[in-house]
Amino acid sequence: MGLTPQAINQLGGYLVQGRDPKQADNMIQEARLLQEAGASMLVLECVPTDLGRRITEAIDIPVIGIGAGPHTTGQVLVLHDLLGISPLRPKFVKNFLTESDNDIAQAIRLYAEAVKSGAFPAPEHCFD
Fold first, then answer.
1. How far is it, in rounded angstroms, from Cα 54 to Cα 47?
2. Which top CATH class is 5-125?
3. I need a surface site. Which of 32, 44, 77, 117 has the fewest CB within 10 A?
4. Which sign does the torsion angle of CA 50, 45, 56, 70 carry?
5. Catalytic-role residue among 30, 45, 99, 113
6. Catalytic (active site) residue 45
């Protein structure tokens, strides 16, 4: 479910998955099957906020989101994205370095605090 370089190439970019109701239902079923097969966690990337919530509610294992809205069990953001030094800037990325006076350690602390408080991801970092 993560967007590897091969998947990005096959999809044609950072395309949101699961907007179509049939595809969303299929993704929920696949998440259940992965859990039944023994997966201990699931990472969702580039899915609508509501689908991130629905998948998280449908399974008992942790769901980690990256561009999957605020309702997953946890969040992850690639360090280069968190620091604003990645050449690609998907919608779900926030540059925390600009809020920290260019202090990398402070940017990481700000990210952790924002996730814990629920301030990140904010609606502008989420997909409908």
1. 11
2. alpha beta
3. 117
4. negative
5. 45
6. yes
3-state secondary structure the chain: CCCCHHHHHHHCCCCCCCCCHHHHHHHHHHHHHHHHCCCCCEEEECCCHHHHHHHHHHCCCCEEEECCCCCCCEECCCHHHHCCCCCCCCCCCCCCHHHCCCCHHHHHHHHHHHHHHCCCCCHHHCCC
Query: Each residue of 11-62: pLDDT tens digit?
Result: 556 689 999 999 999 999 999 999 999 999 999 999 999 999 999 999 999 9
Whole-number pLDDT of residue 11: 56
3, two tokens: 């967007």
- For the chain, the domains span 5-125
